[in-house]
């Protein structure tokens, strides 16, 4: 079934709590799961339905319920995993229109989704946070700043994935903030012991840093290459891997040839 046809069928059901189960059926049936790629077009089109005021408490509670569907009840690639993805994405879409008490509730759900063991739900958290950032970066900056001190590897990875979003990085203040968080995380990696570096959560964070920093550097090259130079000089294998990977990204390698060569020389 075509995405737009599905949305046309779903929209009228949003007004009737006793028919929410039909919404779930439409979404799971058209989720493209199991499969390598969920139906992002459908998810984002559905999320647009929440970019407005006057969303009912019943609908908000439905989205929260979806976020809370456990990995045991909907493991990776199960069609019901798509509901968890849609739930957090839609909460992000609604955030800027929601009353303050609901905004607090929404941010609590993001912490849950950032720590979900399913990669698709983690991506949903980052995409939902990006939806907020596209409209108002203030809440994202405040949330990340408040959470950072006690954040774990999964949450730090979510910060980086959220910020590596070119549409918001046209704002140079956001690019500066992104480089600052990158600096903080790289500095912290230097203190992580060998055993912790073998954890899946750390590996996912490192993988995220291996591309995200290049996105930030491309939008603020002067400060960005200063950051890369700073860490290229440090004798730490994980740091060197992260810096080397970013230098190899086309967005830097093709446009900033001399700068990349200079940093590369510091790695050896």
From TrEMBL:
Domain of life: Bacteria
Protein name in UniProt: HEAT repeat-containing protein
Organism, scientific name: Anaerosporobacter mobilis DSM 15930
